[in-house]
Design goal:
The chain is an alpha+beta fold and about 150 residues long. The protein is about 40% helix and about 20% strand. It has a four-stranded antiparallel sheet with strand order 1-2-3-4, with no helix packed on it. It is elongated, with a radius of gyration of 33 Å.
Length: about 150
């Protein structure tokens, strides 16, 4: 028995059961399965594809382009990472004022600038008018950022 015959038999059986029980939900399923087998029997020649020509024609209009100014006021979090260290809770609890925590980076090595947790650039610390800042020395390309996300 082929798949089409099998589906048709199920459709007929559900339709008969619905007639016997008086249930419209099963009858709907039976009718749907019977209709599906009829459509499949007609073949793929009767199926027409959707026309999207109108959508493609409008794609180049400048008035339909997204206004990026809406995104310009969204706040993001900037972080400078000077290094990382793994310590045990015992050592963490023993720290007092004046304790020195050794980081995994060498002195003079560039810092990481992260935006919302994503590495964007490397830089060095600068002091201007008694305030800390960062001078960007290397900006990570968008292709490299996408590679790191995967």
């Amino acid at each position: 028995m082929s798949d089409e015959d099998d589906l048709s038999a199920w459709g007929d059986a559900l339709a008969e059961q619905a007639d016997a029980e008086g249930s419209s939900a099963d009858a709907d399923w039976g009718d749907a399965l019977a209709e599906q087998t009829t459509a499949e029997a007609m073949g793929a020649e009767s199926i027409s594809s959707a026309a999207f020509d109108e959508l493609n024609a409008e794609r180049g209009n400048s008035k339909d382009k997204v206004d990026l100014d809406v995104l310009m006021d969204i706040p993001v979090t900037l972080q400078l990472e000077i290094g990382r260290a793994k310590v045990s809770i015992r050592n963490l609890l023993s720290y007092t004022q004046g304790s020195v925590v050794e980081m995994d980076r060498l002195a003079g090595e560039p810092l990481d600038l992260l935006v919302n947790g994503t590495l964007i650039a490397h830089g060095e610390v600068v002091v201007i008018n008694d305030k800390f800042g960062v001078r960007l020395t290397d900006v990570v390309s968008p292709q490299e950022r996408i590679k790191k996300l995967k």
